[in-house]
Amino acid sequence: MEYISARETADKWGISQRRVAVLCSENRIENATMVGNMWIIPADAEKPADARSTRYFQGNSVKVKPFLKWAGGKGQLLAEIEKCYPFEGGKISKYAEPFVGGGAVLFDILSKYDLEEVYISDINAELINTYRIIRDDVDELVTMLRVCQNEFVPMDTEYRRGYYMAKRELFNDLKVNGNESVNIEKAALMIFLNKTCFNGLYRVNKKGLFNVPMGSYKNPMICDEDNLRAVSEKLQRVKIVCGDYKKSADFIDENTFVYFDPPYRPITDTSSFTAYTENLFNDEKQIELAGFVDDMHRKGAKIVISNSDPKNSNTEDDFFDNIYSSHKIKRVEATRMINCNSEARGRIKELLISNF
After folding, report:
1. Number of other residues whose CB lies within 10 A of the CB of residue 326
2. Chain center to CA of 302
3. Among 38, 136, 83, 81, which Cα is nearest to 260's?
4. What are 229-246's pLDDT values in tens digits?
5. Is residue 72 over pLDDT 80?
6. Nearest 5°: CA angle at 336, between 330 and 338?
7. pLDDT at residue 346, as a whole number
8. In this structure, what are the phi and psi dihedrals at residue 239, rounded to the nearest 5 degrees?
9. 152 with 105: CB under 8 angstroms?
10. Which alpha helices (DSSP H) does 113-261 contain, by range?
């Protein structure tokens, strides 16, 4: 019989190595064997079905929050999005978020519900690497972040700026030239830069290099150890994928709630902030996503999509009303936070689109 390691099994099944070890210790993987202090698993072993049913925690679970600031984060819309959660009754036992970003909705759901399967993905490779490192290597990550916090916080502004630029240059170098051996360091740098850069933005230039300047924070929380460890626990059974939203098609079925939060369509000609990755999400891609949503609707999934409301600037712009004409469209209030001009920040309408 051919055997593979727990790490190889984890990669194959899309779960953490720690979760594989738990399944082995619970005798849920047939013929799994402990060799020394490591588990080996038959190469043809099938992933055990999750035996637990969907259940609402009712406040008994540890609450987790996003570990990054994120442009377009949904913290302020959670109360509206939560009204759409379809988990009551137990039929919907899976959750998918193919544009996970900062994960505000993901962590709200993980804090409240015990689901059978959860899938997240994003095209931003550094973001997904950070999710995976928090899940699989949180101890080493916390150690690195503690060092950054202890070095950076006591500095004056001039020294902070030099330290920040050195870390930004190192992050870009590892992003371009690094391999898997530097993934933990890249994740630590990602979090450090996010907590200390201007407005917590993640923006890259045409070469894919992170180019956000340092922000002005008196005492930034670079290493939020308690939350990172809580997030790590919540991510143990989450399948984390780097790639296009279309990869979620094999996961999504009639038992799945899907939340799509794509890069927003700009509401003015000068507000095009979609450079979270080197790839821009234009109108053609918005239309393509709407077609994918229709495909998942036909599978029987429960779906919610969020986006900007073009009617904020042009009452005649029916772009989303047209491409999602077969679904329900609700306009909700939000606060525009990403603008270099503070006077241009304020209340606007956003869209919540659902198929139920």
Report:
1. 10
2. 19
3. 81
4. 999 999 999 999 999 999
5. no
6. 135
7. 62
8. -80, 120
9. no
10. 125-136, 138-152, 157-177, 183-196, 225-234
